[in-house]
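User: I'm curious whether this sequence folds into something compact or stays loose and floppy. Could you predict its structure so I can see for myself?
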Amino acid sequence: MTLLGWATILLILALIVGSAVPLGGYMARVAAGERTLLHPMLGPLERGLYAAGGIDPAQGQGWRGYALAMLAFNAAGFALLYAILRCQDLLPLNPQGFAGMAPYLAFNTAISFVTNTNWQAYGGEAAASYLSQMAGFTVHNFVSAATGIALALAVTRAFAGGGLKQLGNFWADLTRITLYLLVPLAVVLGLVFVALGMPQTLGDYVTATTLEGGMQIIPLGPVAFQVAIKHLGTNGGGFFGVNSLHPFEGPSALATAVQIWAQNLIPFALCLSFGAMVGNRRQGWVLLAVMLGFVLAGTAAVYAAEAAGNPLHLAMGVDAAQGNMEGKDLRFGQALVALFTATTTGASCGAVNAMFDSFTPLGGLVPLFLIQLGEVLPGGVGSGLYGMVVFALLAVFVAGLMVGRTPEFLGKKVQAREVKLAMLAVLVLPAAILGFTAVSMVLEPAVASLANAGPHGLSEMLYAFSSAAGNNGSAFGGLTADTPWLNTTLGIAMMLGRFAYVVPVLALAGSLAAKPRVPESAGTFPTDGALFAGLLAGVILILGGLQFMPALALGPLADHFTLLAGKTF
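Assistant: Here's the prediction. I'll summarize afterward.
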């Protein structure tokens, strides 16, 4: 680790937080339907969409109506994307002549993009046509991100007042977020990426003659704008199979720094939107501080582990000054790789600029554990905020047990129903991750997909289901995922991680919204200070440790001690 590396990390994080401040206030105004600078240009389009869909944006929905609208929209999106992928050979904008995807792969891929996961069991440049990339993947990068933000806004409204029967209108939230937030940001960022060297073309792939006289096909395509929304929406699916490690997706260290900024901007800003909407801005800063603290801790852990190098390499006389550079790009260096790794897994983005399979065992443990902690650090766009609110409710419940009072959060009493719903949501991830991993590790067709044996092989499988259920989409590497078993089970894990999690959260929000808002008293536990931030961080760590530490001990930790002993499997 170097001083310059840490200066780079801190500068990027400072820019993220600085940009999140004005954006958080802007998103609160968009959520309230207030007029913004973009309304003169986009207002007519917004009203036209409402008229075409027969939507009254002023008509609110209870939690059941909001949940049903969200589920219906995503079901329709899945069916349409599945059809595009299966029939892409019959559709236009397919200059490479790619065949339609096989049923299992199309199912997995469609679920992946609908759930904001973007798990890729295929190579983007070798399997997906331009139409699939644009009308399929890019569109869902927008609407899946908008869905997550809409759900976060619905949960936030539950704390904005008392006796509420409505959480907003899903269709209005989806439209406003897409038009006034995601599209403008993606257009600007896409132009920045074009200027930084990313291609944006509908032209065919290029055939080049190499120095040795051979022929090489160089894939191109509409890359820049898809990369923009994949980071802004914490989607993560790359246009190319190796994601941001590809020179067309990660053309420089500056482009990589901008990508880190983009994938964290909205999750951090939503914390400040939360504070503004509930009338307690300090509460938003507490949530942001907890997220930022975990990002820094995760970055430091990856940076230290990878800068120390691989003991086996060092024993062979490899220069220790560079650390463990296997699977990394010299253009980025250890600092940018460490920050990118912590943020892309903590932010539920899934984009990668290094191969985790080549990390040291402790370096690979960090992104795995960040996903397993619930994708709240800072989490995906929207999902990070409503996931953090769930943990906040559990934190005040623990505090209430310690002092013998009915717990309250932002004036809402947290009682048995709310705690049960919160725990129902929290238990979705360990059930999907550990359950599917356990079954897969004893089934021969699943075990045959592993590239490694022993603890490292367990880490590969555990990471796959953690990434799927956590709606992250990054891969540990080494796993051959395009099989009927893994395509199906990973797809089911993605659905559970998205929808089986958020429906109880919406029910929780509906229950809290209907309650009166109780004024603070001398006995109220303050949730807008450092004490609560520490309690919240502790609850997240304790729950994560209790749920996943046994599996991590058998995987990355056992792999670490095996490596120290100079052995490999």
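Summary: The beta strands are 206-209, 215-218, 408-409, 412-413. The mean pLDDT is 92.
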